[in-house]
Amino acid sequence: MSQLAWHSILLSAAKIISGLASIMGGIILARWLTKEEYGTYSQLVLIASTLVFFSNFSLPRSLYFFIPRARSVDERKHVSFQVITATMFFSILCTLLILPFAPFLANFMQNPAIKSSIIFIACYLFFLSVSDLFEPFMVSVGHVPVMAWVEALCGVGFILAILVPLILGIDYRCILILYSAILGIKIIVMLYYFFQMEGEYFGVSVLGGIFKKIQYAAPLALGSMIGILGRRIDQFIISSMYLPAEYAIYARGAFELPLITLIPMTISNLMLPEFVKDFSNNRVERVAWQFADKARKVALIFFPLTILMLILAKAFIVLMFSDKYLGSVPIFRIYLLILPFRITIHGVIFKAVGKTYLFIVGDLLYIFSNVFISLVLIKLFGMNGAAWGTVIAVAIFVFYFSLNNSKILNIPLSRLFPWYHLLKIAIVSGISGILVLPLLYVINSYFMQLIIITVLFFVYYVFFESQIVLYFMFF
Hints:
Layout: H1 3-32, H2 35-55, H3 63-69, H4 73-98, H5 102-108, H6 113-116, H7 118-130, H8 134-140, H9 144-168, H10 174-196, H11 210-241, H12 244-253, H13 262-280, H14 284-321, H15 329-336, H16 348-353, H17 357-381, H18 383-409, H19 419-436, H20 446-474
Helix pairs in contact: 1-9, 2-4, 2-7, 2-11, 2-12, 3-4, 3-8, 4-7, 7-10, 9-10, 11-17, 11-18, 13-14, 14-15, 14-19, 14-20, 15-18, 17-18, 19-20
């Protein structure tokens, strides 16, 4: 096994462990805290995790580019020193700047508790921002195994950071302080390996050459800022219009299935180098075929999963978060309609031809359409309107990407996806769902519904899918 393959496995495993820890943490908090407390906690995390893209200007990601290009050990250490120092400076500056905005945030989110919680947000934001250096630095200097272990252990640490305050009866906002301490471990490990690097950095000017790093990182920062705002704009809208307890209901329903986006993302990352080669060799037809084929294969998982979870939404939400969040079920069902649009990473072709500026246009289109449609639909359907607005905005976003992909590939939009195969998969999924639907009224236990209906659904799905394949093979 090559070193690249081994490192990829380690990173994927660490990300999965960290992701599962995050999911478990959300379940524990939702079950333990009241809806008001959970709503406030979610708002605090929402603010910090959104501002982090503003606080470090994506400078940490410049390490991926500048460290490998360094021509000497001294230059590698110079680059690391400059980026680490500049990131810390900007993180401190942003952290201090949000403190006076506590009254505004409290008023905007209709939650007075945010004003007294600003110090928790500021502390968490600083460590979250600086810890963004950890992965780019460790990967760029070749310490991937150490990084993977630390990432996985910190994932477990986040669970303990939740459990300890809850069990001891400490203010739940102190969870953010413990999160900060765990992120501090990443920073300490990174600094340890920085000081262990060969080369000198004494007398190096932080400003000398830092503007090249900022110039490189600025478009990435802008894209990240726009993208993260687009993905969370509905939550900000709900926060500004509803009380924390109602926001908690929305937040628990407005999420996509955990870890599911890793599938198309992984396939996209594997496809990208091949697409770059194909475009350089003018093999556009091969790119179009590969793109459509991968979409079909992912749809074989995502389409039936959408139907199954639409059926089991109530059982899933109650088992995950308790019956306190029954009101989240309709929102979760609406959000599930995003899943069929995720059958491929639509921007992979933009990256392959170097037209990354199209991402910014697409993200801006997504934000403005989401805000406009959500505000209109909230007046008609309440909180559910924000979820519908997000689904419609995603559909517009995907159409924009698909339209540009068809222009780049110079093929009709109808050829970009295997529509006939996708329709067949959707029909088979629908039939399988109809056959298991009556069991909802026969089985009383949510847990047993989840087990029995899932098993029977996929038995039907595999059977019908295989029958259709055999039919086309022989007839």
